[in-house]
Amino acid sequence: KAGVTQTPRYLIKTRGQQVTLSCSPISGHRSVSWYQQTPGQGLQFLFEYFSETQRNKGNFPGRFSGRQFSNSRSEMNVSTLELGDSALYLCASSLGPDRSTNEKLFFGSGTQLSVL
Amino acid sequence: SQQGEEDPQALSIQEGENATMNCSYKTSINNLQWYRQNSGRGLVHLILIRSNEREKHSGRLRVTLDTSKKSSSLLITASRAADTASYFCATVPYNQGGKLIFGQGTELSVKP
Fold first, then answer.
1. pLDDT-derived band of residue A102, with 50, 70 and 90 as boundaries?
2. Is pLDDT above 50 for B29?
3. What is the rounded distance in angstroms from the CA atom of residue A7 to the CA atom of residue B50?
4. Which residues of chain A are within 8 Å of residue B94 when distances are taken between CB atoms?
5. In the predicted model, is pLDDT for residue B1 greater than 60?
6. Under DSSP, is residue A46 helix (H, G, I), strand (E, B) or coil?
7. B31 CB near a chain A CB, below 8 Å?
8. Hey, are the CB atoms on B30 and A100 less than 8 Å from each other?
9. pLDDT digits (tens, 9 = 90+) for A6-64
10. What is the 8-class DSSP label of residue B83?
11. Which residues have a Cβ under 8 Å from the Cβ of A39 and sit 6 or more positions away?
12. What is the 3-state secondary structure (H, E, C) of A56-104?
């Protein structure tokens, strides 16, 4: 079974541009979560999608958005990029959205975004 | 906001020694999970312990959970150079929609 696939692996953008990152979950997984990882803030939860609906959202500005398609693939978009958006963006998938039932997350290798 | 805090932030040991990492959290949880991350890569799930469990083993890993102290520890026995990585605890707090919240991590270096 293929793992979680994130594209692209590396991305360089300039301030003010927008960017779209893609995530293909493990086959059969319907929940996709996104995290931002920086040396200063660590792993910060961005949002989670299940069955094309956003279930949870972290404390990020509206410039950060996402969506999920009917095949469970997900994209996240960051508009009007700022220098502080430079980070490793990680996508993770699971069978369902309810981690209280002891489900674990399967992570992709991430997209390293550099904003110049 | 971060739910978990890990201690120490960095740990350097020799191959063959045991490594212990601690995690403290703030609110009641459904379960606590430990993940490992090799430099610049994605996280890999190591072990999950439920809130009604006190100890769990998986190979060279031993995890304990003390819900009264809101803390957990991860012990790696007989460490190897390949164990060099960052280790994160993550909690599923009650009443937060099931999202997984990560601590800041412990950077483990195992010297051959």
1. low
2. yes
3. 34
4. 100
5. no
6. strand
7. yes
8. yes
9. 999 999 999 999 999 999 999 999 999 999 999 988 999 999 999 999 988 999 999 99
10. G
11. none
12. EECCCCCCEEEEECCCCCEEEEECCCCHHHCEEEEEEEECCCCHHHCCC
| A108 neighbourhood in chain B, CB within 8 Å | 42
Q: Cβ contact (<8 Å) for B42 and A33?
A: no
Nearest CB among B44, B97, B102 relative to A42 is that of: B102
What is the Cα–Cα distance from B22 to B52, expressed in whole angstroms? 19
Among B99, B102, B105, beta carbon nearest to A99: B99
Which of B35, B40, B100 has the CB atom closest to A99's CB atom? B100
Asked whether the beta carbons of B76 and B83 are under 8 A apart, the reply is yes
| CA-based nearest distance A109→chain B, Å | 4
For residues A76 and A46, is the Cβ–Cβ distance under 8 A? Answer: yes
* pLDDT tens figures, B54-92: 999 999 999 999 999 999 999 999 999 999 999 999 998
